[in-house]
Amino acid sequence: MSDFKSLKLLPEIMEAIEKVGYTTPTPIQAQAIPHLMEGKDLLGIAQTGTGKTAAFTLPILNKLGSNRVKARPARMRCLILTPTRELASQINQNIQDYGKKLNIKSTVIFGGVGQRPQVQAMSRGQDFLVATPGRLLDLMGQGHVLYDQLEVFVLDEADRMLDMGFFNDVKKIIAKLPKEKQTLLFSATMPKDIANLANSLLKNPVRVEITPEASTVEKIDQKINFVDKTNKPLLLESILKDKSIKTMLVFTRTKHGANRVVKHLDNFLIKSAAIHGNKSQGARERALEDFKNGKIRVLVATDIAARGIDVSNITHIINYDLPDDPKSYVHRIGRTARAGREGVAISFCDPNERGLLKDIEKTIKQAIPVDTEHAFHGVAAQPSRAPQTKGRPPKGSPQRASKPKSNDGKEAVTKKKKRPSQRARSR
Ligand code: AMP
Known about the structure:
The chain is 40% helix and 15% strand. It has helices at residues 11-20, 27-37, 52-66, 85-98, 116-123, 133-141, 158-163, 167-175, 192-201, 212-219, 232-240, 255-267, 281-292, 303-306, 326-333, 354-364, 398-401, 409-418; strands at 42-45, 76-81, 106-109, 126-131, 152-155, 182-187, 206-209, 220-226, 248-251, 272-275, 298-301, 316-319, 343-349. Mean pLDDT is 85; it is low at 386-427. Adenosine monophosphate binds at residues 22, 24-26, 29, 48-54, 310, 312, 338-339.
């Protein structure tokens, strides 16, 4: 694959790329950047983790940096719409990093914080505005945001906008944008509504499709740990005894569940933090910062809160609860193995979650290997399914007959602890 030099970006941008340590463009960057530098519209079918942020921010920076025009008050030259505030902050941070030497002005607008600083930033005019739809519409309504200098519009994670119920807001914003502009639309999937929007929004777009879902899933070392619900905290603690685990993202189904996991870990003297919708913006940012800096090893998140997290070196994903929607499984485990790295994803499955596991395996079209070696492998928690690993004794064999028949998980675990030799056999 080409290196960044062949992309002919401004020297100031090349310097920034060197500084962040990228040597080779990711596939989406190699495919999208040349077209974007020609000013073409783009339909990017790619999810987070592919390097898509740099794929659009670098050529836009190149465009704005090559033709310096001052944005008047309330105006911006490029608008980037994203579904979450975390993602908005991260994109803004990337723009500031890549555009430092170009003296690029970039700001964010999102809800959950006071609007005054955002209004003030807009009153100075900006090169980039990265925004979430709700607050942006508010500020547009108050006359603080105007689009008559807009040159480039990026709609990021369009399918998540739809999932999160922001689609009408997005359409209202699009209706106010000038017709003449370069437009980029990114989406991991192409449901009908997004395809229709892309048709009406993009002019002769270049289509770049990067489908990491299957390959990402393949690169991740996935495991199922059957465990009784009550033993989940202990199982998590036992996994965390492995000190080589430096960054772990734990997913829970609910906000309360996330808080409970943090409490459990606290009891085990393991530092962690939760991020979810009930946490203030400041608390979420602090948690992310502490996680990035290595002050805490474990971040506990709900699906929605985790969407915008851009931490590139997460090595372990724990599905403490299995997600209701099997697609979330792919999104969750995709938080590791980013930008070509490898990762481990361990899913806890209690007896009530068996149906969810089946749905996930159907979706990813593979059976996830079961780890029977963990300390809380409850026989009661294990569904009767075809084994995926070695050494299961044949039906009717003495070993199979001696397996605890109890349907009570705790009892099975207790028996197991007394007879560790049974572990290997009890799949
Ligand atoms: P994104 O898909 O934009 O969320 O990017 C995923 C991760 O890949 C981020 O942590 C980026 O910093 C990183 N990244 C982006 N481009 C490159 C590159 N060319 N080489 C190495 N890492 C990259």
